[in-house]
Amino acid sequence: MSLEHTQVTFRYERLRALAMGVLEAAATTFLLLIAVRYFEAGPTAKALIALGGSLGHLFSPLVVNEVTRRGWPVARAAAGLGYLGAAALLVAVCAPALPIYVLGCVVATACGSSAIPLMTQVYQMNYPPAQRGRLFSQTMIIRIGMAALANELGGRLLAVRLDYFRWLLLGFSAAYAFGAWCQSRIPSAPLTASAGTHPLRAMRYAREDRLFRITLIAWMFMGMGNLMMYPLRIEYLANERYGLTLDVATVALLAGVVPNVARLVCSPIWGWLFDRMNFFALRAVLNVGFAVGILSFFVSGDSMTGLLLGAVIFGVSNAGGDVAWSLWVTKFAPPERVADYMSVHTCFTGVRGVLAPLIAFHLVGSLGMINMAWMCAALIGVSVVMLGTEVPLGKKARQATPTTEEVSE
Q1: Would you say residue 196 lies in a domain?
Q2: 386, 213 in Cβ contact below 8 A?
Q3: C-alpha distance from residue 68 to each of 65, 197, 296, 398 (Å)
Q4: What is the Cα Rg of the chain in Å?
Q5: Is residue 146 part of a domain?
Q6: How far apart are CA 341 and CA 203, in angstroms?
Q7: 197 DSSP 8-state letter
Q8: What is the domain range of residue 64?
Q9: What angle do CA 341, 190, 4 make, to 5 degrees?
Q10: Which three-class secondary structure state does DSSP give residue 271?
Q11: How far apart are CA 192 and CA 362, in angstroms?
Q12: CATH number of the domain encompassing residue 347
């Protein structure tokens, strides 16, 4: 690690954050909103769009294995996946039918999420340990602000005419390509090959490392609860069967703008806490926030106050979740094994991410939205209890050491 590499990485990550904010608006709001309002998609199509990113998570160990085997620099490998995602969105622009649109959306979101362990390794290589959370959260501020702006402008565009969604997709594709170019400029090295050639060899760390294993299990409970309700926010706001009858601009406001404004305000705070706070205590607090946000959003009936409060709480919690989810393995894993540990984490994220939308969209019809919210809040509650038992071990997970190096840009 050198100060120059840190500065170059931070420079291009801030530029890439502009593109990532646009793509976040696409993945969290517009791809599904277009499917609901323009294509009038059924539950399976909506679930597939919602789980596209999780498919990328699921296959991330295979991606890490292939990048390691070929000896590619990790940032450039991530850039290649970004260009593929941009091409997939161009296919979706030309979609004459729902199946092609769904395929383009799934491939695009999967490409982005499968590259996450590669970028986590970049942060491990190029960011000083004691500043990692701060630097990451500063780029997240840009990303979040851009996501809020993209949600607002995108919602206004679709409110004028729904057919304009193709212009949105073109913009999303261009943002993807720009983000990939930024990644290609970041200094990085090939991954260090570990013993064994099996593409899922990294899974052994979940068996051998007890602390890592317990954290993964707790995250599974939390993730299932959160990810089942996450895509249902758009369903709840946009589908007329729930009686809210909101226009697309209001849906974008509640699903994208308000949560992202809350994330924007709180992101630097959570980045500061990540560098200094016991990780398990931090994660438990975040999980409580997600549970409270779900209940406020979905159990408040058609109260706009409840919807706004739930959106704000979700945004505050998500700000901390951004940092904790993306960087937590840097506190546990040996430096040369960060990408392997992260690929295991993202793979299990993919498992629950694939299952959760499929379960949610098919189960909500029989349970109803309120019962679903209570069930998911209970699952998150289990994770809080599990994390609470591990708080004393959190001090052992801190690898950050004081440093006098500061990034000047």
Answers
A1: no
A2: no
A3: 5, 10, 44, 27
A4: 20
A5: yes
A6: 8
A7: -
A8: 3-190+202-397
A9: 100
A10: helix
A11: 43
A12: 1.20.1250.20
Q: How far apart are CA 387 and CA 391, in angstroms?
A: 7
Of 286, 110, 311, 154, the C-alpha closest to 229 is 311
What does the block give as tokens for 169?
Answer: 């997709």
- Sole residue written with tokens 């007890």: 210
Q: How many domains does the chain have?
A: 1
Residue 298 domain-assigned (yes or no): yes
Q: Is residue 402 part of a domain?
A: no
* Helix H or strand E encompassing 265: helix 258-276
Split the chain (409 residues) into runs of 10 and give each run's mean pLDDT: 87 96 91 88 85 87 89 95 95 85 94 92 90 88 89 88 91 96 95 65 83 90 90 83 80 85 88 87 92 89 84 92 86 82 88 85 86 94 89 56 38
The terminus-to-terminus CA distance of the chain in angstroms comes to: 17
Q: 190 by DSSP, 3-state: which?
A: strand
Residue 71 DSSP symbol: T
Which residues face 73 on adjacent strands? 190
| CA 163 centroid distance within chain | 28
Q: Residue 387 has which token pair? A: 């994390």
- Asked if residue 186 lies in contact with residue 78, where contact means CB atoms within 8 angstroms, the answer is no
Specify the residue for token string 């050639």: 197
Strands (E), 248-306: none
